[in-house]
Write a sequence for this structure.
């Protein structure tokens, strides 16, 4: 069973700061997902990646398959970025992307 | 696009009562999942389905049942509710030929 570890657990930043959240996993995967959950809210899929780097607006996700590590970066952070960021992995299973294993999440608070 | 619709959003049950959490998706996704989210823990898979008529247990299936009579609907049944089932429940769907997951907005269940 894959173990997914995220760091830090909690992160407080000032508006405008560059933010990095890390995720490591223990066994080979077919894909890694970054998810966002606002307090009391639903879960939104931000990225799914299996190699390299993806960018969407101020968010950048990278993955290093050899090191079993991924990072989520937020540039020019804003208070509306305050949320829990969750890393999840799907393991090789005939190429199907089911049965995610989740990290416990990183609570990000961005102060104005 | 409605995406994944969960009902109800909130519910309080007494110990021993039963209820059904509803989940419907309009994206023609084959794969559907039920997860529960407990404070400080990563999401855990309860049950999943790879298509109409096909369901299977996840990590924490005890006390729950599911059915998948259509592609669109994937209800989760709680029989004889227990305080340990107090949690936030998320339904999700995915399509192996496309990237990413879509989550419902969640059902917050309290068993007293």
């Amino acid at each position: 069973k894959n173990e997914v570890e995220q760091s830090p657990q909690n992160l407080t930043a000032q508006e405008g700061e560059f933010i990095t959240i890390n995720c490591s996993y223990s066994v080979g995967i077919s894909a890694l997902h970054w998810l966002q959950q606002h307090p009391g809210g639903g879960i939104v899929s931000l990225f799914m990646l299996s190699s390299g780097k993806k960018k969407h607006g101020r968010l950048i996700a990278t993955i290093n398959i050899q090191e079993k590590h991924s990072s989520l970066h937020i540039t020019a952070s804003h208070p509306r970025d305050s949320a829990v960021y969750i890393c999840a992995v799907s393991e090789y299973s005939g190429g199907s992307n089911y049965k995610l294993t989740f990290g416990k999440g990183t609570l990000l608070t961005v102060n104005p | 696009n409605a995406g994944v619709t969960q009902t109800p959003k909130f519910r309080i049950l007494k110990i021993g009562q039963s209820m059904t959490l509803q989940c419907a998706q309009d994206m023609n996704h084959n794969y559907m999942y039920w997860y529960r989210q407990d404070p400080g823990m990563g999401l855990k898979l309860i049950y999943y389905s790879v298509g109409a008529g096909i369901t299977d247990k996840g990590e924490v299936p005890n006390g729950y049942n599911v059915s998948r009579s259509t592609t669109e609907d994937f209800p989760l049944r709680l029989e004889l509710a227990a305080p340990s089932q107090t949690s936030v429940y998320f339904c999700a769907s995915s399509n192996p030929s496309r990237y990413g997951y879509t989550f419902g907005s969640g059902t917050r269940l309290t068993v007293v």
Observations:
- Chain A touches chain B at residues 4, 31, 33, 35, 41-45, 48, 86, 88, 95-105 (CB under 8 Å).
- DSSP finds no helices and eleven strands in chain A.
- The radius of gyration of chain A is 14 Å.
- The longest strand of chain A covers residues 83-90.
